[in-house]
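input
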Amino acid sequence: MPGGLVLDDGRRLGRAELRPLTGREEEWVTQHAGMPSAHLATKILSACFVRLEDVPVSSDIIDKLLVGDRDYLILQLRRMTLGDRFAAVFSCPACKRAMDVEFLAQDIAIEPRPQKAVEYTWQTAQRAIRYRLPNGADQEAVAELPGGEAVEALMARCVIDDGGTPLSVAERAAVIAEMDRLAPQIDLELELNCPECGHSFTTPFDCTSFFFSEIRAQSRHLIREVHYLALHYHWSEAEILNLQRDRRRRYLALLNETLRPN
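output
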């Protein structure tokens, strides 16, 4: 992971093992379409985490992972489940026309910033401000708050000790800047040119939200796959949903070969 989880004893865990989504997780994402991405990410990471070095993975561990690490792991799950190629549709801000955009997972910028401590201190002339970097639990806690309120709530959770005096506007800005400097970054900004009107613009891309929307968009294929495999192999729905997508597709390919007219 680009940041890693630092334990209370100072040890850093940076190597994670994941498995691809099964039909069970794909179905769960589809059934929870209104749930914020932060909550979806926690559920899916909890289900697909195999190990984090030698530490048993629990929901508590998933909550403690830094935001950048969680985004990175979701990106890897997306690559394992759907592949490296992204196909998205954006709206031109000038002419409002829809435009198709394709790019690869390798185009997503990753800035590794290995962590060395659980918390950090920013020193001013008057006091020392102790804080930690935002993690999954923080994401979930503020996920449904409006923008301004979410920032306030996030700061309240991440500032461990302000010396008993609320942070000034300048101090808040400085601490936020330090958080950005220290946290691992998974970022993609697409530089696009509208083929209809020629307008050039830059737009951010949220890989985590996009992955979950892709899973939901393909839910109809999952139902058809379950039906087809159950019809010919007589497996139960539960047995089929426990298969990973690649495995399901292999069986479907074999069926198509077997049932194709000579």
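quick obs: The first strand starts at residue 5 and ends at 6.
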